């Protein structure tokens, strides 16, 4: 289309995409499927790629962020972002209200009560209807400029509707809801990456990312509650702010109370305590604010906090129960982790019978003993934790929990791993370690052998049918018939799954081998760079450091793993089974890409492996990292540091549409 048509179509697409964004994220009434929405977005991206002059600051395409930042610049808050005084006491709340009455000289003072979202405080400024910038609280006077990161939050409008004031600053909290957080953690675990501890820490870490494209992958949301610099918004109360937020399409609290006595405030915070369990976001308290701005001004502030507001903090949900025993779990790396077995108790709406004790140093520090009455807590953590001991209930019959000197499963001597405050079983052939390693090897994110769940793996190891991954390929109908609850059809499916796994890409094998510190991303990069397991096995630490996603600790771990005799023997046996050790050679389709070297990055319509196969089938080569020898960088959405390096080196960057045209 000509420039005029492109401009007209882009404007129409932006309007349509933002309408669907609002329907989905603000009103929960989507009209089209995700697939159709993505098609609209891709069309707009295509127009803007062809006509870069048509890109606008409020374009939906800008939500994925720009290039990685060198570092955060600072923004000075026009109105300081003060913190609030806290209380955990209802009596102190009554005292707060008494101070309000004394300060204003009146009996009934209208207050607003809202949930206190357990997130990261931010200020977002709009000017002339467009999102101008966003900043963290920082020290209250200056904060980090996180504009590109905040734009990745799809519930946040980049342009205000014309019906509301066009220039003002709102304040709120960025957060992750529990459902999205749990899903993200499950995906990280499947990919061999560490789980995040809790939503708030994960949110804070996400906002500190220098690459907005990485932030776009995190399920961040935002909720607003106040105003900084009012700008063109001539408001007179906190109630007016709530109305403005609603009319502007800015996310706001679902639960709000209006109270004009201390007893009504107490009733409201108790009601919120009951209802907050059903909120999508984590809340750790309630915020009580005087409604009228004129009264807020009369009350003023101390050097640290306003006198017209206070945060009432709920106690973290806790329960007391008896510690019946301490079990020790052995992980695939041999780490011994103590787990508390408890008398079942109701906590946060679910029955809890297990809790983490973290490590043996923690047990010693808190003097936790079997038979103790202990307090357990869910305070944003993934699983409950033992936080304290009720010493007043000790009878003298409680038993110390000794730090084990031997593995509880195989009785091998344990060794200290001071780098991770852990103790490990020294026996590589410990049955529990073997089970965990086999489970990892067969996992969906690795060799993806269906039917080999935890129970089947345990039976195979206990029956001494499997000692390492290579033994899986020696299984047959006769050996599997020894297992419980394995009928003919189950055995047939399992053997078919094992045979099918031989066709898996070599990066899955590398990940499945469980090399310490090697996750999915680095396994992919290693095989893109080296092409075969044997070539990788011979690499030096210095050579490994040239691979994308591989740092010093990872490089050393890979190098050491391939030089252990038992691992070399395992690789030999796996090679003999027919498992793929090299990226497959692709049948030549054309020589359209002959003499070119490609690097692939970002999100594309096909997997990287499929696109790499296409490149090879058309005469090209594929590399895992950008260098002066790279001919093209094929960049999809959310392209990362490879894109920056390509631009710096002058490597030609092309889109997926351009790539398809070349074919």
Structure, described:
The protein has 663 residues and is α+β, with helices and mostly antiparallel strands. It has six domains: 3-64, Helix hairpin bin (Helix Hairpins); 86-313, D-amino Acid Aminotransferase, Chain A, domain 1 (2-Layer Sandwich), CATH 3.30.470.30; 317-400, Nucleic acid-binding proteins (OB fold (Dihydrolipoamide Acetyltransferase, E2P), Beta Barrel), CATH 2.40.50; 431-501, DNA polymerase, domain 1; 506-577, 5' to 3' exonuclease, C-terminal subdomain (DNA polymerase, domain 1); 597-662, 3-Layer(aba) Sandwich (Rossmann fold), CATH 3.40.50. The strands form seven sheets. Strands 2-11-10-3-9 form a five-stranded mixed sheet. Strand 4 (120-127) and strand 5 (130-136) form a beta hairpin. Helix 1 (3-25) packs antiparallel against helix 2 (34-50) and helix 12 (431-442) packs across helix 13 (454-462).
